């Protein structure tokens, strides 16, 4: 996709602060520091549309970005930050699940996992919520530049196995080299085009 414009829309804490339902939405989910902001910046060819940081923020916000007046990108709050206050840790689950359950314009989600780590409870919860609410998703393995080719491939297989997915279902990405950018855009296009999966509650 040719990026003509990419703009911050708003940050929301509560559902009534979400912007009106206007464009198809893609949500980005993952642990704090996994590289969510960096991925979004690479996708839209901006250095700092989304602030990147080595010290995760303490506020839990759902951030909305308008891309080309065609798609909304939603940067969901990160989790797993060791120094986060208990209140923040407690609020994360309900806040994210509420967004996933209620946002009717949500077409799909990208779950980011650092290629060096293993999926933990939070990742399995997210996948369970995606499935429960009929949200198609893809996994993006971030920071691929941390490994040589061989080690990269063995980690892709390892994480695929741990998640019960196929290696081919995962996208390997590096914000440093920008490798994987086209594959992520391809996945986004497919998610937006894919017919809605009936929700488990319907
Ligand atoms: N080596 C490497 N570092 C990355 C990559 N993506 C993000 N980072 C670094 O990881 C840290 C967290 O990135 P950020 O995008 O803010 O993560 P977020 O908390 O998930 O939004 C920053 O120091 C980034 O520079 C990547 O692909 N490769
Ligand atoms: Mg971020």
TrEMBL record:
CDD domains in UniProt: YihA_EngB (cd01876)
Q: Which cofactors does it use?
A: Mg(2+)
Asked if the keyword GTP-binding belongs to this entry, the reply reads yes
Q: Which residues form the signal peptide?
A: none
As one GO molecular function, the record gives: metal ion binding
One Pfam family here: MMR_HSR1
Matching SUPFAM superfamilies: P-loop containing nucleoside triphosphate hydrolases (SSF52540)
Kindly state which keywords UniProt assigns to this record, in alphabetical order: Cell cycle, Cell division, GTP-binding, Magnesium, Metal-binding, Nucleotide-binding, Septation
- UniProt KW GTP-binding keyword: yes
The record's similarity note reads: Belongs to the TRAFAC class TrmE-Era-EngA-EngB-Septin-like GTPase superfamily. EngB GTPase family.
Q: Which PANTHER family match?
A: ENGB-TYPE G DOMAIN-CONTAINING PROTEIN, MSS1/TRME-RELATED GTP-BINDING PROTEIN
Name of protein: Probable GTP-binding protein EngB
């Amino acid at each position: 996709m040719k990026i003509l414009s990419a703009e911050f829309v708003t940050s929301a804490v509560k559902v009534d602060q979400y912007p009106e339902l206007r464009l198809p939405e893609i949500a980005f989910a993952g642990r704090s520091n996994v590289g969510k902001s960096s991925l979004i910046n690479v996708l839209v060819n901006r250095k700092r549309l989304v602030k990147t940081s080595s010290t995760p923020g303490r506020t839990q916000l759902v951030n909305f970005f308008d891309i080309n007046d065609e798609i909304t990108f939603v940067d969901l709050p990160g989790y797993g930050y060791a120094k986060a206050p208990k209140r923040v840790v407690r609020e994360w689950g309900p806040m994210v699940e509420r967004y996933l359950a209620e946002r009717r314009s949500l077409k799909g989600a990208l779950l980011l996992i650092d290629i060096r780590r293993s999926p933990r409870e939070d990742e399995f919860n997210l996948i369970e919520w995606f499935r429960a609410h009929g949200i198609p998703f893809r996994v993006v393995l971030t920071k691929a530049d941390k490994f040589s080719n061989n080690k990269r491939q063995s980690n892709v297989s390892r994480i695929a196995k741990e998640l019960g997915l196929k290696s081919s279902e995962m996208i390997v990405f590096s914000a440093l080299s920008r490798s994987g950018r086209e594959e992520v855009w391809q996945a986004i296009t497919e998610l937006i085009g894919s017919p809605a999966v009936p929700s488990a509650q319907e």
